[in-house]
Design a protein that fits this description.
By secondary structure, the chain is α+β, with helices and mostly antiparallel strands. 44% of the residues lie in helices and 10% in strands. It is built from eleven helices and six strands. Helix 3 runs antiparallel to helix 4, helix 7 packs antiparallel against helix 11 (242-249) and helix 8 packs across helix 10. The longest helix is centred in the middle third of the chain and has 24 residues, at 131-154. The protein binds zinc ion. Zinc ion binds at residues 197, 206, 208, 210-211, 218, 220-221.
């Protein structure tokens, strides 16, 4: 079977790493930064008790968010100069799976697994229930959520999903004071303070790298796009468009009002029912 290329997010569990490689060759696997920072604190920072944990965690995060390899290396060298023992941890953590500057695939600006934690929290009330009731409780929650989102999106008139629409509006406002130098039809030099950035509207790239990482035009790209009197929406990744948002919630989850009414079966012993309680 041939699968589309995906980007997987995980807490770097060895089993998940192995299975993703095996079942989805060619797909990318990103490691959650929050989990990685926790491991960095436990495995490296604790062996340097006098170091400021908050500060060094923030340097590690800066390395992960750094858009260029040069910036990534600068933060990593900063860590290694103070903590030479961090070298083994950093090398074995596969930086190409968590650092923005090295990640070979796309992850649409997502760097943490927060959505999974939200999910865990969301289904918490159902955890103490027997298995059948638990599954049905989660089904009802999802059914309601899908219905709510389907209703909300049906009246939306904007071009992008709500969060991305707001993010783009903010970036556009930031872009209005930038000045533009045109190189040729689709290439621009955008002056932002004392720095210049190269924008290529054909390739959807900016030398600040934010556009490539987040798949939403950065302020430099917004300035270039607007100078051509084009729509910003035409330069946003298709997954951010409202149509994709609608697609995500368009399927219905059916009602199962009799989920707890077991079918009677004369052939006792041939059916194994779920346990009534969780052990
Ligand atoms: Zn930029």
């Amino acid at each position: 079977m041939v699968f589309e290329k995906f980007t997987f997010f995980s807490d770097r569990h060895p089993g998940i790493i192995k299975v993703v490689k095996l079942l989805f060759p060619g797909s990318h696997h990103a490691y959650c930064l929050r989990h990685l920072v926790d491991n960095f604190v436990k495995q490296v920072l604790r062996s340097y008790p006098l170091h400021n944990k908050k500060y060094w965690s923030s340097v590690f995060k800066k390395a992960a968010y750094a858009p260029s390899q040069q910036e990534f290396t600068r933060h990593i060298n900063n860590i290694l100069e103070s903590m030479p023992r961090a070298s083994t941890f950093i090398t074995s953590s596969d930086p190409q799976s968590w650092a923005n500057a090295l990640f070979p695939g796309r992850r649409w600006g997502v760097i943490n697994n927060n959505i999974v934690e939200c999910w865990n929290n969301w289904v918490k009330p159902a955890r103490h229930l027997p298995i059948v009731s638990m599954v049905d409780h989660v089904r009802v929650q999802i059914m309601n959520m899908m219905h709510r989102r389907r209703e909300t999106t049906s009246v939306m008139v904007q071009e992008l999903s709500p969060k991305k629409e707001n993010a783009l509006a903010t970036t556009y406002i930031e872009s209005r004071n930038l000045s533009i130098n045109k190189s040729c039809g689709w290439k621009f030099e955008v002056v932002d303070g004392d720095k210049s950035f190269a924008v290529d509207l054909n390739e959807w790239t900016c030398s600040c790298k934010s556009w490539q990482i987040n798949m939403l035009p950065c302020k430099h790209a917004c300035a270039a796009i607007k100078s051509k009197s084009m729509s910003l929406y035409a330069f946003c990744d298709r997954y951010f468009h409202i149509e994709m948002y609608r697609q995500a919630y368009k399927e219905m989850i059916n009602l199962i009002p009799t989920f707890d009414m077991y079918e009677t079966n004369n052939d006792e012993g041939s059916v194994i029912n779920a346990p009534d309680i969780r052990s």
